[in-house]
Amino acid sequence: MNGPGPSGARAAGIRDFDIELRLLLDAVYLKYQHDFRHYAYASLRRRMRQAMDRFGCETLSQLQSRLLHEPEVFAQLLEYFTVQVSEMFRDPAYFRAVRSQVVPMLKTYPYVKLWVAGCSTGEEAWSYAILLREEGLLERALIYATDINPAALRTAEAGVYALDRIAGFSASYIAAGGTHSLSDYYTAAYGQAIFDKSLRAQIVFSDHSLATDHVFSEVELVSCRNVLIYFDRELQARAVSLFHDALAPRGFLGIGSKETLRFSPRASAFEEFVPDQRIYRKR
User: Fold this and answer.
1) Which of 34, 114, 185, 276 is within CB 3.0–4.6 Å of 221 for a Cys-Cys bond?
2) In 10 A of CB 119, how many CB atoms?
3) What pLDDT is stored for residue 283 in this prediction?
4) Phi/psi of residue 159, each to 5°?
5) Residue 221: which H helix or E strand, with range?
6) Which residues, including other chains, have CB under 8 Å from residue 45's CB and lie 6 or more apart?
7) Backbone angles phi, psi at 19, to 5 degrees
8) Rounded to the nearest 10 degrees, how much is the dihedral formed by the CA atoms of 46, 29, 223, 255?
9) Which pLDDT score is estimated for 1?
10) What pLDDT sits at residue 240?
């Protein structure tokens, strides 16, 4: 009897890989209480293959054994489970819309809280701090910046970025409606840009998982951009529900340019505020 053809073998290999992937995600949850079981599988497959190469493992089962018995391996694996891609004033048109259309509403509040969910290495949180400083709002604002990756949070809290990234940050800052020079907000030393600690005073960096944790404060603006695309439909729904519950009445939600609330069970609880920039307002 002939064995399976090449296409059948590939399909069987994918099935085996997905079985191992599911077991690995269960192991991570049981051992470390981090829940990646509802992250998008297509992205996880690609990143776990990269992790196997990094750690010299031929199978995911070998990688699972290492992360169960070597906590330092899991700490390093977090960079593969979570996508740490961030820029200051990323998608400048979004920040321009926040500045021109959302901030005037926020100024009517005596005190304002923002939540940057999935803040990665902090560039977006620092961008909001600069924007609010320029709009005269930072001193009566608090920015919660949360992520599940401790290493990313340490970088975010330090506010120190490679100097060779600053030209790109500056161009985006100007395109986003910046009213000064980005250099007003950092000092350069030893190839690094160190952002002003007076901005940091209004930011709280903290561990928070959209998969397992709950609402921790009422806020007027939630910004969770380019995060939902890495979740499956069930986890997207959970995250949007968290944002709804966290938002004050008539609060604002900003998501990524490739993301939508259209398929969320809570879609009807929001209205489009700046549709082309994916900014919504709680009904």
Assistant:
1) 114
2) 29
3) 96
4) 65, 35
5) strand 219-224
6) 17, 18, 21
7) -65, -45
8) 40
9) 47
10) 97
Q: pLDDT under 50 in the chain at which residues? A: 1, 9
The CB-based long-range contact list for 92-95 (8 Å cut-off, 24+ gap) reads: 92/172, 92/173, 92/175, 92/176, 92/177, 93/175, 93/176, 93/276, 93/277, 94/176, 94/225, 94/254, 94/257, 94/277, 94/278, 94/279, 95/127, 95/131, 95/172, 95/176, 95/177
Say what the pTM is: 0.89
Provide the β-strand partners of residue 62. Answer: none
Cα distance between the two ends of the chain: 64
Structure tokens given for 179:
């009213």
Instruction: Record the tokens describing residue 269, joined without a space.
Output: 């609880």
Cα 16 to Cα 10: distance, rounded to the nearest angstrom:
10
Helix, strand and coil percent figures for the chain, each rounded to 5: 50, 20, 30
CB 195 within 8 A of CB 121: no
pLDDT in tens, 135-158: 999 999 999 999 999 999 999 999
Are 183 and 92 spatial neighbours (Cβ–Cβ below 8 Å)?
no
d(CA 255, CA 260): 7
Q: Quick one: DSSP state of residue 150? A: H
Among 228, 225, 222, 237, smallest CA distance to 281 is for 222
Q: What is the pLDDT of residue 10?
A: 54
Domain ranges of the chain: 6-81, 92-282
Residue with tokens 């506010």: 159
Instruction: State whether CATH 3.40.50.300 applies to domain 92-282.
Output: no
